[in-house]
Every structure is written in C-alpha cells, then in structure tokens.
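Is this the right way to post structure tokens for a design question? Let me know if I should format differently. Anyway, here goes:
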C-alpha cells in the first residue's frame, strides 16, 4: 500500500506508562490529555517533503482516519498534521 499526494500512512506506537517529573505514574486516561502521539511512517505520498518511510513522528492525535490492511491497523493523515520528525 502506498500513500499519494500529501497523505502519510502511519502506524501508531503505544506509549508506555512513565512517571512524570514528580514520580507519579500517569494512567492511560491521563495520557489521553496529551495532544500529540508518536508513530512510525509506513508510507509517504509523492508530494510529501521532509518525511521519509521509516521515520518516527509526532502527530495531532485527532488527525486522520484508520484503515485496516492485511490484518494491521494503520492511520492515514495529512502532511500538515505532523508536528515533529525524529
């Protein structure tokens, strides 16, 4: 499967529960308050610049939509929804 134009196909990475600076563990409900999520880029469209297949990114958690392909859940987002490339 290959993304086209300014779209990016990503696979979300489930963040592990980590203590904050004061040592408190945040459960998943509190992690939902974090606006950006981490993902691995599965495929980039032909008009996407600065992001490559295999890159790790942070993107707006409310962006895009899900798609199931070959028993794998992926998301399709726009290039503009990416805020950080690692």
């Amino acid at each position: 499967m290959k993304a086209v134009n300014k779209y990016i196909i990503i696979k979300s990475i489930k963040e592990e529960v980590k203590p904050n600076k004061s040592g408190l563990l945040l459960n998943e409900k509190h992690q939902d308050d974090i606006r950006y999520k981490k993902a691995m880029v599965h495929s980039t469209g032909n008009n996407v610049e600065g992001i490559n297949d295999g890159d790790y990114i942070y993107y707006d958690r409310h962006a895009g939509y899900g798609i199931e392909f070959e028993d794998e859940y992926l998301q399709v987002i726009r290039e503009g929804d990416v805020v950080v490339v690692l």
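Format looks fine. Someone answered above. Worth noting: The radius of gyration is 14 Å. The first strand starts at residue 7 and ends at 12.
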